[in-house]
Every structure is written in C-alpha cells, then in structure tokens.
Amino acid sequence: LDLSFYDRPTVAVARALLGCTLVHVGAPPEGTEEIIDTLAEAHQRVGLWTVAIEGAVATVRVLKDAGHRLGVVSNAEGRVERDLAGAGFAGLFETVVDSHVVGVEKPDPAIFHIAMERMNVAPETAMFLGDVPAVDVVGARAAGLTAVLLDRHDLYATVDAPRLRSITELPGWMASEWGQGET
What is the value of pTM for the model shown? Predict the structure, then answer.
C-alpha cells in the first residue's frame, strides 16, 4: 500500500487498521508489522488492486455496449489507470481521475467535477457507484451526482443510499430506478 502521499497520521491509521484486520483474521499480533511491510512492498512492485471483483469487467462492458458513458474517480496513488488496464478494463472508460494525479481526493466534490468536466456531463445526468460511504456517497452527493453504494458484504444497512450487493446488479438498477442517465 503506497501510503507515502498521505500525511503521517493517515499512514498510522492505515497501518493500524491493517493490523487490526490481520489480528481479527487470526494473524499473531507480533507478526502484523512484517505482514504489513510485505504487503506494502508487494503493492509497490506489482499493485494489489489489479484483480477485478467478480462480474465487474463484464458489467462495465454491458454498460458501455448499452451506450452509457463511463469514467472512474479514485483515491489512488498515481497508477489507477495502469491497474485498471491490468485488471481487464483497458479501453472501457472515457476518463480515469486518479486523486494522486489531480491533487484532490474524495470526498471533495472537486474530484467528481474534474471527471464531469472531462466527460462534458452535468451532475444531474450522472451517477456514481462507490463502496465507501464516507468518501463515495458523501462526495458524489456534494458534487450533485446520484450516489449508489456497492455494499458487497452488507456492512452499511443504515446508509441512506441505494445499495447493491453485486456490481452485476447495476445495469438492472439503472434501468428500473435511475432511468436513462448518461454516465
């Protein structure tokens, strides 16, 4: 995990969260720092986010083939476009906005506005699917977009936003609930 672009408190929080997660899944507490360091090194070398979630590539292709204009807004470390290509998404998005590249991150509505400006779309014609309510739902709404939460593990039942358990549900949800939006 390339956390170098975050400030020191954020790095400490990320490491602490990873440590708690590792202990929760049974890793011995005395080994968590070494595991975190190994994950960080592996991510720097090859990227740990280069495997698409089940059904994602096919769903994105279905949406693109149906005429929807697609873009990505990601809090990342400068290589999200490369990672997306490695995961099978090459050529499927009209724009990819990487927070590290543009210098602003979600939930700041400015990052969503960058994507909409690049695509020449108005907020009321766009929707954003994200999996972290505090940055994705909050940020998309602040930018004037329809926000949809991908809650694959049913963690956010109390979040006031449309929730999908699988990305494969998105085309059907868009057809029945959202109408004929552009993106």
Answer: 0.77
Query: What are the residues facing 129 on neighbouring strands?
Result: 148
Q: CA 156 to CA 151: how far, in whole Å?
A: 7
Identify the weakest region by mean pLDDT among 49-53, 108-112, 156-160.
Answer: 49-53
d(CA 83, CA 93): 13
- What distance in Å separates the CA atoms of residue 45 and residue 176, rounded to the nearest whole number? 42
Pairing of strands 163-164, 146-150: parallel
CA dihedral over 118, 89, 46, 33, signed as positive or negative: positive
Token pair for 52: 């698409």
Q: Cα separation of 128 and 16, whole Å?
A: 29
